[in-house]
Amino acid sequence: MPTVEEKMMSTRNKDVIRLEPESVIPILKPKLIVHLSNLIEHSSDRAEFLKLCKRVEYTIRAWYMLQFEDLMQLYSLFDPVHGNQKLEQQNLSSDEIDVLEQNFLRYLFQIMEKSNFKIATDEEIDVAHSGQYLLNLPITVDESKLDKKLLKSFFESHPYENLPDFADKYVIFRRGIGIDKTTDYFFMEKVDAMIGRLWAWILTKTRLEKVLSRRSNSRPKKDPKKDDENISEAEDDELCVERIRLENMELSFRNLLSKITIQEPTFDRIIVVYRRASSRIKAERGIYVKHFKNIPMADMEIVLPEKKNPSLTPMDWVKFLISAAVGLVAVAGSVEMPKADLWVMFAILSTVIGYCAKIYFTFQQNMATYQNLITQSMYDKQLDSGRGTLLHLCDDVIQQEVKEVIISFFILMEQGKATLEDLDQQCEELIRDEFGESCNFDVDDAVHKLEKLGIVCRDTIGRYYCVGLKRANEIIGTTTEELVLKAKQGSGSA
């Protein structure tokens, strides 16, 4: 079952997307530690708790350092910029390189999972594409420019559920949900929508809808699921996000020149992994890892690799040709009539010319918007790529693991013994009540870390309980970082 459970409910021209809570804890670690320590009554316990938090972080960081070092060493061989030079220096065979790149992907996917990134499924992408936001062009990938062996080989040896159809060419990881709002006049978009509605009305009145196909989009669409029983529940759910789009607004010449606000849910973080196709002359070994932020769901195409330049779609050309043919036939028929009605001929010609002009100018406007979005994705929305992305992921894993352990220990310290289910519920309630945030707390991973640290145990009936704060600090012991800080302070005071 995908993490993003999309239920689009259409009622009163509203599109609502219902989203499952993410596992990521959206609270800065310093804020979390300070706030929890302030909830502790005795000052001596607060000091012990702050010491424990530092020792937990130092220990977890040490656990991951060797794995992260292996990851970075492997990536240095597949860095698209300098990787080929290092591979040549190693004098490795092709089979040996294949093994190394599969090891790199295995480490990378493990880090992604630990950092609560999920592979975007076909269902999630279909629902994301079921609406339009700022990008109104059909964007496709030039698959001939992408390698199809690397990821296919990896997934054959490491099966994953609900893989998208394009998983042999590139993988889109996503994490976190947000909201993007844009306020503007949207003059051309309003005119386009009004012309489209007028055209639909004319087609209905003239019965030409049987000849011309309905206005459509080449992107895959998912029909909204109407569920009246869940609508009231969804409106009260804090993880329900409404899509506010021009298509569902009341437009008129009165509000043509007024500003409006449209809204779309976003993926807070997206990471795309792919390799370019090899040429006849040179085998491509570089692996691209690109990191984006705040990408509107309906505009996910801007993160796709090796995009084709947009152009008029085959459907647009069909509309052109059919419109021209229907117009000529209708005009010729009117001329052959004994009493040709000039007004009818004028109406038909105006409708056909107006519709063709609409297609052309809409395309030009969408092209300008597309170029702006691509530029924005490069400068504003792209966080990093390659080594920078991997370093960010490594630190992110540590931060998430530390926060999970601290929250779980705090609950057991304050509430006493608890079953796994009760601990999970109490951790989520703490995050919601004290910080106003929601998340699907990963209690299994947190308890596993606590047991590995040796500061949480289970009783005879399976309930978890923690040792005292002072004892917990003794069990973990003095860390290397603490010794270094003491030595540094000693040398500074000497």
From TrEMBL:
Q: Which InterPro entries match?
A: DUF3754 (IPR022227)
Q: Which UniProt keywords apply?
A: Membrane, Transmembrane, Transmembrane helix
Give the top-rank taxon of the lineage listed in the UniProt record for this protein. Eukaryota
Q: Which residues cross the membrane?
A: 317-336, 342-361
One Pfam family cited in the UniProt record for this chain = DUF3754
In terms of PANTHER family, this protein maps to: AMINOPEPTIDASE (DUF3754) (PTHR33645)
* Protein name in UniProt: Aminopeptidase
Organism source for this protein?
Rehmannia glutinosa
